[in-house]
Specification:
The protein has 207 residues and is an alpha+beta fold. It contains 2 helices and 13 strands; from the N terminus they run αβββαββββββββββ. The protein has a 4-stranded antiparallel beta sheet, with no helix packed on it. Strands 1-2-3 form a 3-stranded antiparallel beta sheet, with no helix packed on it. The longest helix has 29 residues.
Length: 207
Protein backbone atom coordinates (compact mmCIF):
# COMPACT_ATOMS: atom_id res chain seq x y z
CA UNK A 1 0.00 0.00 0.00
CA UNK A 2 2.81 2.39 0.92
CA UNK A 3 4.61 1.62 -2.35
CA UNK A 4 1.40 2.20 -4.34
CA UNK A 5 0.79 5.53 -2.60
CA UNK A 6 4.38 6.66 -3.21
CA UNK A 7 4.12 5.77 -6.91
CA UNK A 8 0.76 7.53 -7.22
CA UNK A 9 2.07 10.73 -5.60
CA UNK A 10 5.18 10.72 -7.80
CA UNK A 11 3.10 10.37 -10.96
CA UNK A 12 0.70 13.06 -9.76
CA UNK A 13 3.59 15.47 -9.19
CA UNK A 14 4.92 14.78 -12.69
CA UNK A 15 1.49 15.45 -14.19
CA UNK A 16 1.12 18.71 -12.24
CA UNK A 17 4.58 19.90 -13.30
CA UNK A 18 3.83 19.05 -16.92
CA UNK A 19 0.55 21.00 -16.79
CA UNK A 20 2.32 24.00 -15.24
CA UNK A 21 5.02 23.87 -17.93
CA UNK A 22 2.48 23.74 -20.74
CA UNK A 23 0.42 26.50 -19.13
CA UNK A 24 3.44 28.80 -18.79
CA UNK A 25 4.53 28.08 -22.36
CA UNK A 26 1.08 28.92 -23.72
CA UNK A 27 0.96 32.05 -21.58
CA UNK A 28 4.38 33.18 -22.88
CA UNK A 29 3.25 32.68 -26.45
CA UNK A 30 -0.06 34.47 -25.99
CA UNK A 31 1.20 37.45 -23.97
CA UNK A 32 0.78 40.69 -25.97
CA UNK A 33 3.93 41.74 -27.85
CA UNK A 34 5.03 45.34 -27.61
CA UNK A 35 4.97 46.77 -31.16
CA UNK A 36 8.22 47.95 -32.76
CA UNK A 37 7.23 51.58 -33.21
CA UNK A 38 10.39 53.13 -34.66
CA UNK A 39 10.61 54.36 -38.24
CA UNK A 40 11.40 51.50 -40.59
CA UNK A 41 10.88 52.90 -44.12
CA UNK A 42 14.11 53.90 -45.87
CA UNK A 43 14.78 55.88 -49.02
CA UNK A 44 15.37 53.93 -52.22
CA UNK A 45 12.78 51.22 -51.62
CA UNK A 46 14.50 49.70 -48.57
CA UNK A 47 13.01 49.03 -45.13
CA UNK A 48 13.86 47.62 -41.71
CA UNK A 49 11.86 44.53 -40.78
CA UNK A 50 11.24 43.41 -37.19
CA UNK A 51 10.71 39.71 -36.39
CA UNK A 52 10.75 37.51 -33.32
CA UNK A 53 10.68 33.83 -32.40
CA UNK A 54 10.31 32.06 -29.05
CA UNK A 55 13.56 33.42 -27.64
CA UNK A 56 14.99 36.19 -29.83
CA UNK A 57 14.11 39.48 -31.54
CA UNK A 58 15.60 40.39 -34.94
CA UNK A 59 16.00 43.32 -37.29
CA UNK A 60 16.50 42.69 -41.00
CA UNK A 61 17.36 45.04 -43.85
CA UNK A 62 15.09 44.33 -46.82
CA UNK A 63 14.44 45.64 -50.29
CA UNK A 64 10.84 44.76 -51.02
CA UNK A 65 10.66 41.05 -50.06
CA UNK A 66 14.38 40.34 -50.43
CA UNK A 67 16.43 40.04 -47.22
CA UNK A 68 19.78 41.80 -47.64
CA UNK A 69 21.14 41.07 -44.17
CA UNK A 70 20.28 40.49 -40.52
CA UNK A 71 21.06 43.79 -38.82
CA UNK A 72 20.91 42.69 -35.19
CA UNK A 73 19.35 40.33 -32.69
CA UNK A 74 18.86 40.17 -28.93
CA UNK A 75 16.94 38.23 -26.31
CA UNK A 76 13.19 38.56 -26.43
CA UNK A 77 11.80 41.05 -23.93
CA UNK A 78 14.77 43.41 -23.91
CA UNK A 79 14.18 47.07 -24.87
CA UNK A 80 13.99 47.65 -28.62
CA UNK A 81 16.42 50.58 -28.33
CA UNK A 82 19.17 48.07 -27.63
CA UNK A 83 18.16 46.01 -30.66
CA UNK A 84 18.47 49.15 -32.78
CA UNK A 85 16.47 51.89 -34.44
CA UNK A 86 16.80 54.34 -37.32
CA UNK A 87 18.50 57.64 -36.50
CA UNK A 88 19.29 59.07 -39.95
CA UNK A 89 18.36 58.06 -43.49
CA UNK A 90 20.78 59.20 -46.19
CA UNK A 91 20.60 58.42 -49.90
CA UNK A 92 22.78 55.31 -50.01
CA UNK A 93 23.32 54.72 -46.29
CA UNK A 94 21.44 54.86 -43.00
CA UNK A 95 22.41 55.11 -39.35
CA UNK A 96 21.27 52.34 -37.01
CA UNK A 97 21.74 53.26 -33.36
CA UNK A 98 21.86 51.04 -30.30
CA UNK A 99 20.97 52.81 -27.06
CA UNK A 100 21.21 51.12 -23.67
CA UNK A 101 19.94 54.14 -21.67
CA UNK A 102 21.34 54.99 -18.26
CA UNK A 103 23.48 57.72 -19.83
CA UNK A 104 25.40 55.22 -21.96
CA UNK A 105 26.81 56.46 -25.29
CA UNK A 106 24.64 55.65 -28.28
CA UNK A 107 26.65 53.30 -30.47
CA UNK A 108 26.01 53.53 -34.19
CA UNK A 109 26.43 51.70 -37.44
CA UNK A 110 26.53 53.49 -40.78
CA UNK A 111 25.12 50.84 -43.08
CA UNK A 112 25.31 50.76 -46.85
CA UNK A 113 21.83 49.91 -48.10
CA UNK A 114 22.76 47.82 -51.12
CA UNK A 115 25.16 45.54 -49.19
CA UNK A 116 24.04 45.81 -45.55
CA UNK A 117 27.66 46.43 -44.49
CA UNK A 118 28.62 48.75 -41.62
CA UNK A 119 31.50 51.03 -42.59
CA UNK A 120 32.26 52.49 -39.13
CA UNK A 121 34.37 51.08 -36.27
CA UNK A 122 32.40 49.01 -33.74
CA UNK A 123 33.17 51.63 -31.05
CA UNK A 124 31.71 54.52 -33.10
CA UNK A 125 29.15 56.62 -31.24
CA UNK A 126 26.50 59.15 -32.22
CA UNK A 127 26.80 62.90 -31.81
CA UNK A 128 24.44 64.44 -34.38
CA UNK A 129 23.62 64.72 -38.09
CA UNK A 130 22.36 67.08 -40.77
CA UNK A 131 20.38 64.68 -42.89
CA UNK A 132 19.46 67.01 -45.75
CA UNK A 133 23.17 67.77 -46.25
CA UNK A 134 24.21 64.11 -46.02
CA UNK A 135 26.46 64.90 -43.03
CA UNK A 136 27.09 62.79 -39.93
CA UNK A 137 28.93 63.90 -36.77
CA UNK A 138 30.29 61.06 -34.66
CA UNK A 139 33.26 59.92 -32.58
CA UNK A 140 35.25 56.76 -33.16
CA UNK A 141 35.40 56.17 -29.38
CA UNK A 142 32.18 55.83 -27.39
CA UNK A 143 33.93 57.19 -24.28
CA UNK A 144 36.27 59.84 -25.72
CA UNK A 145 39.29 61.46 -24.12
CA UNK A 146 40.71 64.89 -24.89
CA UNK A 147 42.96 63.24 -27.51
CA UNK A 148 39.99 61.97 -29.51
CA UNK A 149 38.23 63.94 -32.23
CA UNK A 150 34.74 64.60 -33.49
CA UNK A 151 34.44 63.32 -37.05
CA UNK A 152 32.29 65.22 -39.54
CA UNK A 153 31.62 62.73 -42.31
CA UNK A 154 30.19 63.52 -45.71
CA UNK A 155 28.18 60.38 -46.40
CA UNK A 156 27.82 61.24 -50.08
CA UNK A 157 31.51 61.84 -50.88
CA UNK A 158 33.24 59.91 -48.09
CA UNK A 159 35.23 62.98 -46.94
CA UNK A 160 36.11 63.16 -43.24
CA UNK A 161 36.99 66.26 -41.19
CA UNK A 162 38.29 65.95 -37.63
CA UNK A 163 37.71 68.53 -34.89
CA UNK A 164 38.88 68.62 -31.24
CA UNK A 165 36.35 68.51 -28.44
CA UNK A 166 35.88 71.64 -26.34
CA UNK A 167 38.06 71.13 -23.26
CA UNK A 168 35.32 72.36 -20.92
CA UNK A 169 33.06 69.44 -21.84
CA UNK A 170 35.30 66.92 -20.08
CA UNK A 171 34.51 68.36 -16.64
CA UNK A 172 31.34 66.25 -16.60
CA UNK A 173 30.39 62.73 -17.76
CA UNK A 174 28.33 61.72 -20.83
CA UNK A 175 30.40 63.85 -23.18
CA UNK A 176 28.79 62.81 -26.45
CA UNK A 177 25.24 63.14 -25.14
CA UNK A 178 25.80 66.84 -24.46
CA UNK A 179 26.82 67.96 -27.96
CA UNK A 180 24.61 68.95 -30.91
CA UNK A 181 25.11 70.71 -34.23
CA UNK A 182 23.91 74.31 -34.08
CA UNK A 183 24.73 75.20 -37.69
CA UNK A 184 26.69 73.78 -40.62
CA UNK A 185 27.84 75.62 -43.72
CA UNK A 186 30.44 74.96 -46.40
CA UNK A 187 33.01 76.86 -44.36
CA UNK A 188 32.08 76.36 -40.70
CA UNK A 189 30.69 73.90 -38.14
CA UNK A 190 29.12 75.35 -35.01
CA UNK A 191 28.25 73.07 -32.12
CA UNK A 192 26.26 73.66 -28.96
CA UNK A 193 27.31 71.83 -25.81
CA UNK A 194 26.30 71.69 -22.17
CA UNK A 195 28.98 72.35 -19.55
CA UNK A 196 28.99 72.91 -15.82
CA UNK A 197 28.80 76.64 -16.57
CA UNK A 198 25.77 76.31 -18.83
CA UNK A 199 25.20 75.89 -22.56
CA UNK A 200 28.01 77.15 -24.79
CA UNK A 201 28.79 77.24 -28.51
CA UNK A 202 32.01 76.70 -30.44
CA UNK A 203 32.70 77.31 -34.13
CA UNK A 204 35.23 75.38 -36.20
CA UNK A 205 36.47 76.45 -39.63
CA UNK A 206 36.17 73.74 -42.27
CA UNK A 207 38.85 73.01 -44.84
Amino acid sequence: MALFLKTYLTRSCIVVLFILFVSNSVKAQTEPVEPYEYDSILKGGYHISFKMDDSLEYLYLKQKHRIITELSSCSRGLPYKGLGYLAADFTGYFVLVHSFSGGNPTNIELIEKKTGKNILPLSAAWIDDVENKQMLLYCEQDVPSEKDRMILYNVQTGKKEAFPFPKAIFSEPQVLNRISIKSLTATALTISYDSEKGTKTKTYHRS
